[in-house]
Write a structure and sequence with these properties.
584 residues; alpha+beta; DNA Primase, Chain A; DNA primase DNAg catalytic core, N-terminal domain; Dna Topoisomerase Vi A Subunit, Chain: A, domain 2; 5 domains; five-stranded antiparallel sheet; 51% helix
């Protein structure tokens, strides 16, 4: 595996602002000197993910994830260390040494194959073979600029059109695993998965092509074909268009949500840049959680027919459960977002968005004909029980009470009762216990807060006094630091090879300072306690070993143990003075 020099790694890290990079994946809000948002690595309803612009580190006080800008990109984009450094370097225009060994990673090979395919399909769209696809896009009103921005392409109709070109650069095994080829049933060879289809590259939030959606240009079935699941593509966890929309979503503090690729392109071309779509499937909880990183508000736009309303009902529950505030647009019968905006224009679509139904309005207005009042109330209560935000939930309850002329307190009570059944413990088990030993943890925090204690720690402590593996390794890293200034703290996280150690350090860096008036006195007390504990345990272990050896005829070994015991007892007495004290 390729290794970069420390100087190169630091050059890349220092060129990146962690708030900017994290902010592309997490909706951050200023909180004192730091920024906070919902953690992208676990499901939570209240923000526990903290980013420090001064220290250039992040930490989630819910799941324990933490590190610097490089480790964040590794986690959020599922990249190796080398891949993350290269990704950040590309963003900042920093040239790095090239080496074939980078492609040794399976993930890197698969991503390279998918990216190559995106380029191949894009070239095919511009070639004579892509005429039919271009005519289709012309008929649907997709402008050349939009085709370019979304890297639309065309998969040729031959069974081996892509294979012939790609086999010069990738093994057949990689192309099969990336979902671009399908193995023949005979067990020998493979053929192109996508043939004679308009191709939509699906990109991660970071911009990497991870899979494809392909639309048939004739009567072939299925009409839309997605890449299969692979190590780099999980269609239920990716939102089509998010890479292009995320800045607009953040600026608008809202997202428009549609189902189809063409629906998204039509809205995007009409000026609705804050639009995302599922990857040709029903929306999943994972997709809703991804969107929640960027905004708390979403407008779902669905066809107004029975199938569209059914899909909207299902999506409503998914998005509410993810903590999003939802409004809904049900288009006039016979229209999808694509046909509506092309036929009636952006202004008419904006009018619908501005007048989008609330959760209450949607549930009441789309209830099947003949639905009685009680059933509508119960449906509302089920929806309200999913709403985490107390103010938003109360406003909806008030609206439901007025709409159906039913007692507000009863609706609130029943929603609360149902909510306890469905969401109590939703975040249970998320809190990271961290190292079990409070004194060890606080001692490390003291050193991080007071660089003057670093030298004293080197002279008075060694790793042997720490029981916690994470604290022991963290201290080993700390004592080798020349400085604990903010730039060096981010560098310290690079040196932490273990996720638990990295989490411990990032947590300590972002916790509030203890504010001890005499930190050196507290430090000395903690050092004495650690040593006392170690000495007491060593004495106990030595005494037990002496008992085991009493029957032994090895007098020399017994003398060594007795001498060792005496040394330990004297050292403990000297350290403790007249008092016996152990760690509690």
């Amino acid at each position: 595996m390729m290794r970069f020099s420390q100087e190169t790694i630091e050059k890349v890290r220092e060129a990146c602002d962690i708030v900017e990079i994290v902010g592309e994946h997490v909706s951050l809000k200023k909180s004192g000197q730091n920024f906070k948002g919902l953690c992208p690595f676990h499901s939570e309803r209240t923000p526990s993910f903290t980013v420090s612009p001064a220290k250039q580190v992040y930490h989630c006080f819910g799941c324990g994830a933490g590190g610097n800008v490089i480790s964040f990109v590794m986690q959020v984009e599922n990249l190796s260390f080398v891949e993350a450094v290269r990704s950040l370097a590309r963003r900042k225009g920093i040239e790095l040494p090239r080496e074939r060994s980078e492609t040794d990673s399976l993930t890197a090979s698969l991503l390279s194959a998918v990216e190559y395919a995106a380029g191949f399909y894009k070239r095919q769209l511009a070639s004579p073979a892509g005429k039919k696809a271009r005519e289709y896009l012309d008929a649907r009103g997709v402008a050349p600029d939009t085709r370019e921005e979304f890297s639309l392409g065309y998969a040729p109709g031959a069974w081996d059109g892509f294979l012939t070109a790609a086999r010069k650069h990738f093994s057949e095994a990689i192309l099969v695993q990336s979902g671009l080829l399908v193995p023949r049933e005979s067990g020998s060879g493979a053929y192109d998965r996508f043939r004679d289809r308009l191709m939509f590259p699906i990109r991660s939030a970071g911009g990497r092509a991870v899979g494809f959606g392909g639309r048939a240009l004739d009567e072939a079935q299925p009409k839309y074909l997605n890449s299969p699941e692979s190590p780099v593509f999980q269609k239920g966890s990716v939102l089509y268009g998010l890479y292009h929309a995320k800045r607009s979503v953040r600026a608008a503090e809202s997202a428009l949500v549609v189902e189809g690729y063409m629906d998204l392109l039509a809205l995007y071309e009409s000026g609705f840049k804050h639009v995302v779509a599922s990857c040709g499937t029903a929306f999943t909880p994972e997709q809703a959680k991804v969107l929640r990183r960027y905004t708390t508000d979403a407008v779902l736009i669905y066809d107004g027919d029975e199938a569209g309303i059914y899909a909207a009902r299902r999506a409503l529950r998914v998005f509410l459960d993810a903590g999003l505030k939802i409004r809904l647009v049900c288009l006039p019968s016979g229209h999808d977002p694509d046909s509506f905006v092309r036929e009636r224009g952006a202004e008419a679509m904006q009018t619908l968005v501005d007048g989008a139904w609330s959760v209450t309005e949607f549930v009441v207005k789309t209830a099947p004909d003949g639905t009685d009042r009680e059933s509508k109330i119960r449906s509302l209560i089920e929806a309200y029980a999913l709403i985490d935000d107390a103010i938003y939930r109360r406003l909806q309850i008030q609206e439901g009470s007025e709409s159906l002329r039913f007692d507000e307190s009863t609706i609130a009570y029943e929603a609360s009762r149902l909510r306890k059944k469905t969401v109590v413990g939703a975040d249970a088990g998320q809190l990271s216990a961290g190292p079990a030993d409070r004194v060890e943890r606080e001692l490390l925090k003291l050193i991080l807060e007071n660089e003057s204690l670093l030298k004293a720690a080197r002279e008075s402590l060694s790793e042997q006094y720490f029981k916690s593996d994470a604290c022991r390794e963290a201290f080993g890293l700390l004592k080798n630091m020349n400085s604990l200034q903010d730039p060096d703290l981010a560098r310290l996280l690079n040196a932490a090879q273990n996720d638990e150690v990295r989490s411990l350090l990032s947590s300590l860096m972002l916790e509030e300072d203890y504010g001890y008036e005499e930190p050196s006195n507290v430090f000395s007390d903690y050092v004495r306690k650690l040593k006392m504990r170690w000495l007491s345990e060593s004495i106990k272990n030595t005494e037990e070993e002496i008992k085991k050896k009493e029957a032994s005829s090895d007098a020399g070994e017994m003398r060594t143990l007795l001498s060792r015991l005496q040394e330990l007892v004297v050292e403990r007495s000297s350290l403790n003075g007249a008092r016996e004290e152990t760690l509690g």
